[in-house]
């Protein structure tokens, strides 16, 4: 199905920005939101240079603020109606990776990650599904992570837990609308270069460039499968092996 009008959260940098560029190349109209509006303005200019025939709408949004999420999503829906369209797809992408081992004095950072990645994602899913249910169509895309399948140590502990949570949320919504013309996809990326991975220090294993990762993400999203692993190799096979990893192996991984 051709999804012409797409909303992406966390679009000012990283995977959100990369996906916006790829969708612009495909001629999609875009609704982009993030906290850093100056970066959104620059991105809008870049996208219109890539494809001057598309429409790009931008709004500031902190996804932890529930009322703001509903207001911004409805505003974008109205924006698409002004160009004789509707909101076709929402990509729940906004998130962060702050944190440290539990009990080491970083409770505030861990809580911030938990609220942004899980509660913020819930706000986005609620707002998107309210619109999709009303129009009886749409594609909800949830960006989870390969870390969602096991618990991880150190800075990944809370992050992995939130990604497991949003994966479960997406599956629950998918079951709820199983007989409706509404699609729900969970995308689990491996390591794709971004501001988040740059902060790790030592490059993680099997990391690919943002450009390649964005292309693969968009390709997976357009297939509208229930679950996708990006890139498929080696992460699909790693996922199959993950239940057998010892905790010692997880620490190294």
From TrEMBL:
<protein>
    <submittedName>
        <fullName>Putative enzyme</fullName>
        <ecNumber>1.-.-.-</ecNumber>
    </submittedName>
</protein>
<dbReference type="Pfam" id="PF00106">
    <property type="entry name" value="adh_short"/>
</dbReference>
<keyword id="KW-0560">Oxidoreductase</keyword>
<dbReference type="InterPro" id="IPR002347">
    <property type="entry name" value="SDR_fam"/>
</dbReference>
<dbReference type="GO" id="GO:0016491">
    <property type="term" value="F:oxidoreductase activity"/>
</dbReference>
<comment type="similarity">
    <text>Belongs to the short-chain dehydrogenases/reductases (SDR) family.</text>
</comment>
<dbReference type="InterPro" id="IPR036291">
    <property type="entry name" value="NAD(P)-bd_dom_sf"/>
</dbReference>
<dbReference type="GO" id="GO:0016020">
    <property type="term" value="C:membrane"/>
</dbReference>
